[in-house]
Structures
1.
Amino acid sequence: MTDTKTRVMDSAERLFAERGFAATSLRDITADAGVNLAAVNYHFGTKEALLSAVFDRRFGPINQERLELLDAAECRAEGAALDLEEILRFFLLPPFAKMQEWGDAGPNFIRLVGRAHSDTNEQTRASFLRPFEGIVSRYEVALRRALPNLDRAELRWRLHFVIGAMAHTMAWCQMMKTPGRRRGAPPEIVQEALVRFVSAGMRAPASDRGGETS
Amino acid sequence: MTDTKTRVMDSAERLFAERGFAATSLRDITADAGVNLAAVNYHFGTKEALLSAVFDRRFGPINQERLELLDAAECRAEGAALDLEEILRFFLLPPFAKMQEWGDAGPNFIRLVGRAHSDTNEQTRASFLRPFEGIVSRYEVALRRALPNLDRAELRWRLHFVIGAMAHTMAWCQMMKTPGRRRGAPPEIVQEALVRFVSAGMRAPASDRGGETS
DNA sequence: GTCTATATGCGGATAGAC
DNA sequence: GTCTATCCGCATATAGAC
């Protein structure tokens, strides 16, 4: 039996992902976790603080891996521009890699993050979107070096589309096959398909003025 | 002064898009609309029925246009396969075209739909996702004809990524410039960028086994 | 740290006058 | 069709015993 705090976070993670934050009551969570209602306020203070705790526990590690992979590769490259597909791989794959590391609890969090990407609430933005935007800026610089002929605004929009494809895949990650399920492709197949798709999208011929070719 | 029913739907549309369904109370809506609380139950019955009404009002026309554009083009082609980019244009552009037709109220609904794409609630699925899935199946057939060498499962996933890129762009459509705003690109620019991006993604070289080249 | 009990307010929905 | 007033349950959060 794991400890109360962890049990609450696990249940919250799953229920927030399935029903959304506002539609999930603390009673739903504590009933699911098999703990007392008052334990939530004792351990976390408020419902919003619980949401932040749920994000912080797993989103930090994902983003740290994103940064470390990029840093390490840039260090190895000694000033040369990185390969486009490599950069996209570093950006896209950590969520799915961690999902598999985390076992049964992984998909819950990944779904939650997938949905959070289209969330405009101020509470979600604070604990989720703000740190993510730092990552995006960092990758935007790397991508600009890999695609030096692509118009800056166009690159920003394409990065936006990359995030959309990734977020949607995360939100519906239950469509991927895990060892126990019948339907759906294994995560590795989907990940590779995603990388191929967005790599080609980033390299698309540009509009009439200002061209990127290869 | 427009009629009460319309005012309620307009406010609901905006607030559902901004805060989400569960986080928006009927009191928020009626206060924003400047109508009496009881009017909601008189005109719509329940809060869920109001949500359905909000979807039905605008999502039907969008999907009808998607179908009509595809039908008309297939009719003109007289049995020949359509061009990939043309198909994607028919699928992707109606939401944005309608958004601009609808003026100030347009972006609210488009954001709502963008968020709904990653919603797994049963209530949202019923009034939104089910009809959409019919459209997707129809387009999947057309795409398979345009990309006959692409593996079927791979095509499904790529269509999934297309939807993700589109949904994310819809959810953040306030980033596009409308006549009165300073920042952001005009919608036409973004739409074209999206079409170019996903067209290239769909045509990406396939994995080792089973290839699609041009 | 964990429980019971409860304060306090907001939620959707309705009754019934006009 | 529109209003006021209200029912009633559920929400978050807390007090205080153990």
2.
Amino acid sequence: MSLDHILLGMLHEPASGYDLKQEFERSVRHFWFAELSQIYPALKRLEDRGLLQSTVVPSSRGPERRVFETTEDGTKALEEWLRDEPIIAQDRLAYLAQLFFMGKLEDLSETEGFMERLRGMMATRLAILQAIEAEWMGAIGVAGDGLTEIEDDRVFHMYTTLRMGIHSLRSRVEWCDETLNAIRERRARAATRDETEVTRA
Amino acid sequence: MSLDHILLGMLHEPASGYDLKQEFERSVRHFWFAELSQIYPALKRLEDRGLLQSTVVPSSRGPERRVFETTEDGTKALEEWLRDEPIIAQDRLAYLAQLFFMGKLEDLSETEGFMERLRGMMATRLAILQAIEAEWMGAIGVAGDGLTEIEDDRVFHMYTTLRMGIHSLRSRVEWCDETLNAIRERRARAATRDETEVTRA
DNA sequence: GACCCCATGTAAAGGGTTACATGATTTA
DNA sequence: TAAATCATGTAACCCTTTACATGGGGTC
């Protein structure tokens, strides 16, 4: 299971479930999401299987913390997963399903509105990733091509996943634009046809 | 739930669960996937909720077929869903998670192999979608820009989803290439550095 | 006779979301 | 004193995957 391996990957240094949730939001949010209510039992499972071990430590503020660290078996399991074939899951894109059947509404202005809202959402996400990229590049003091100028190999790997998000969202925005153009052309043509008919009548 | 609505969308004419599975493979496979064992109970649920009704009919070959058709309520439910906001689910891209942590292997050739295999998979999928597009364009006898030349609005809607798949996979392949180039540059640089050190020693 | 396609399902297990419960400390 | 943050969890439900069960008809 991927969540388990992501948790193993994040535990290069000891951390609690709560810490790991923060880390999720900070660093892998663009390709994975997990609720706390999913993380806690996952950590317990991993400990039961001997891939993690935990100790309870008092917290400076708030209740006690259960802090996990990787065992040797945990590291082995992670490396095995990293050497696996690329895991590609089935896409399930509900908004494409909506669009696919939207012809049934027999009103292209519905589709136009839908695509405009979709474009907005995609563009917002793209802007967020680009801001993260800019911030990163600033932090490491890199000006030109991040991919070749990054020193650290670990940072390089992380950065490539951000690049994927940017490529992907850019292509989605482009697709929205292509589609919106086509819709507008179709609507314009339909309007002209109607006018001609009205004039003729 | 989206599966339910996709089934409603597909039932413009009466069909059995088995038929609908074929239809899944034929027409929405690039953005949705469902097992038969998921489709049968889904149809039952929809019938219980009054959005579908079914009749059992004998089959020319094999066992009896349970054929479903939409009710008025079913059509209403579908249209409501179509008028909803675009539904964007959380992406969960396991292969990006693998890549994100792959620096831990401390061997860029592992990453290179991984990215080559990933590129292969993406390119294969892209080729499949492009073949479908070509076939389609041939079938409707359209030569130039499909999006504006398609007559039927329903066909237009379906075609846009195929275009999304093509855009998306093309951008993934491009990202793989960008990443592979960067990896090769890094490896070349590392090799040069090693040589210099060997010469010096 | 073996195998594939037609056709319908159930059952168990895995993975994810939403809601609920609890309670301490810090900040406005 | 109210709200936010720290911190850990459980429970119910929903969706998906995998495995199992059944049996007729046609083809090699």
